Amino acid sequence: MNLKLRELRKKQNLTQMALGELLGISHRNISKYETGLIMPDIDTLISFADFFNVSLDYLVGREYVDYIADSQKENLNVSETNFLNEYNKYDKGQKCDLINIVANVKSNEIKILNKYLSLPSTERSKAYKILEAAVKVYDE
Length: 140
Prior knowledge:
single chain, mainly alpha, 434 Repressor (Amino-terminal Domain), 10 helices
């Protein structure tokens, strides 16, 4: 099982010792969970998921396409599958932010983004700097 505990702990800039103290778990067990030597019980998994504000599915490395009904999987194309896998790497708050952003993007903006993404990296860099400068002016 691919427990994402180390990744989540490091994102929070916590040591194994600090995480253990916050959750009442020995740092030795935190280390063993992260290396896969032992698996936490369900109550401990729930504590981790609550602490890091992620789903149990995310914590144990389960991705959305893993549990879509087989009849639905065949209807997903590669880009949809990749999108769902990437989406499931985010915590609940980040997912809400992403949904809000996507919900407010207009079709003409999507066309521009697609054109931007198809540019060579040097040209993308130039376009990004122009957009970044425009946003700074707007923020002031």
